[in-house]
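Thread title: Can someone regenerate the structure for this chain?

I was given the following input by a collaborator and told the matching structure tokens would be attached. They weren't. Posting the sequence so someone can regenerate them.
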Amino acid sequence: MKHWQGPAWAAGGAGVLAAALYAAGMLGSGPAPDSESQSQGSAQPVSESVGTVTIDADTQQRLGIVVAPVATGTDGPRLDGFAKGLDAGPLAAIIAEVDTAQAAANASAAEARRLESLYRQDVSASRRSVEAARSQAAADAARIRLAQQRIGIEFGPGLLRLGLAAVRQLTTEIASGRAALIRIDIPGTSLAPGSVVSLGTGSALAVVRVLGPAATADARLQSAGVLAILRGPMAHQSLAGRIMPASVATGTGDAGLIVPRDAIVRFQGQMWVYRQSGKGFVRVVLTDPVSVADGWLIPVGSGQARLKSGDRIAVRGGTGLLAMDLGGTGQNQAAEEE
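Best answer:
Regenerated them for you:
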């Protein structure tokens, strides 16, 4: 990265946005307003200190600020493939079948116990009725096992290993748009359970872990696909049948945090991101960033104390946050001089 580009970018980008925000009444200068004007005006975002911006949700939406969690990754060679959103309707139908079979099994088991108790007391219950009730209870229990096994048969053993309660919760999350079940196909590699796969590009980037092999192979690619669960902002966009780019690291590259390119703001010859914290954002400097296909890699041990996996950062609108951050602090002139 050429350091002479940073100041020019900061001076131009931050200066123009600061002027625009000033014109919109979001940055102020001059004497403080009197109490009457303060009572009539609405609450405005303020920079409590250098590197910290307090902003409400409405202003954040108006400025087009989008946040997403920081993911982990490596800078080693990568293999490319694709991921496809799966229809969770059949999975929900299986869960309903399991619940129905469970209810029938509970009822038949209770009936068998009742008849057996009556038979032992020699009260209005024949041996034949007891045996018939036991047979029905066993048949209903077998239907439960078959319904549960359908999860592994139709979707893959990795999903079955999650357990019935976790799969039931997954269908609820999928129905509400908080999760998506996806199939990943990357030719030329075999992905073991737990492998980390990157999805999407640019600011729309997510990381998932492989659950296990899919139930069927892709007829065109002849690849053994794997299943994964996608959660987060991208989940509600991963409709059934939608195709997304996917990649997996190979070899022994350096591990670290992946920061999307659109999240970067440049100031004072350094690269920064804005991490969401409380009611606003905190500016965090990136130490020793390495350019990779998915953005910038922050290697392990290179100043990650203020940024860790899962932290939510502004992947869009960082320039506006920088302008608000520097507005009224006396640093705009310094930024222009650098």
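The mean pLDDT is 76.
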